[in-house]
Amino acid sequence: MRELSLNVLDIAQNSIAAAATLVTIEIEEAMGMLTIRIGDNGRGMTNEQLEQIRDPFYTTRKTRRVGMGIPLFRMAAEMAGGSLAIESEVGVGTTVTARFGLDHIDRMPLGDMVGTMDTLIRLNPGIDFLYRHTVDERSFELDTRSLREVLDGVPLSEPDIMDWIDANLTEGIQSLGSNA
Ligand SMILES: Nc1ncnc2c1ncn2[C@@H]1O[C@H](COP(=O)(O)OP(=O)(O)OP(=O)(O)O)[C@@H](O)[C@H]1O
Ligand SMILES: [Mg+2]
């Protein structure tokens, strides 16, 4: 993957697979670090599952496909002078936090977060998404829960609504002066 936004899309798919109803995607650029956090209220993981993710080639079944979403995101972070951490609790949810050196030569660009959010929102009508992007003291937020309230039953996937969401995200992120 050449863009971190594609890793974010991939990690958010795990939240969706875990039956989350709310997925929070936070991007923070501060003090020379880029932090990307994907949090959900899905089914969570047991300690045993968490151990297995730390060792992607561990498997109890020969037929189990080795998942690469988290290992790839971890590799991207470690390559760029950062790290990845996972917190999870069964029945509560999961948070994946990746940190990167903002100016590290091997850090992949954040890329098209508007495209990632557009895809997630459009393809998952039953799930709410909160996008929060912070650069130093400036912050931008888009919350599909508040949009739904205003829209009063009109689906977010309506083309006009999606166009508005894309424009709002584009403008909001631009206004932050992001270096990611
Ligand atoms: N947010 C989450 N909630 C619950 N379980 C999760 C979550 N994220 C990951 N997992 C568990 O960790 C496993 C490994 O995730 P990972 O993204 O690395 O691989 P995968 O999703 O199985 O495969 P791939 O991403 O390559 O399609 C998942 O199969 C799932 O069991
Ligand atoms: Mg995955």
Look at the structure and name the CATH superfamily: Histidine kinase-like ATPase, C-terminal domain
- Proper CATH architecture: 2-Layer Sandwich
Count of domains: 1
Strand order of the largest sheet: 3-4-2-1-5-6
Key descriptive features of the protein:
single chain; binds adenosine-5'-triphosphate; 180 residues; alpha+beta; binds magnesium ion; 38% helix; six-stranded mixed beta sheet; 6 helices; Heat Shock Protein 90
Write a structural description.
It is a single chain. The protein is of the alpha+beta class. It has one domain: 2-Layer Sandwich (Heat Shock Protein 90). The chain is 38% helix and 26% strand. It is built from six helices and six strands. Strands 3-4-2-1-5-6 form a six-stranded mixed sheet. Strand 1 and strand 2 form a beta hairpin. The chain is globular. The model has no long low-confidence stretch (mean pLDDT 94).
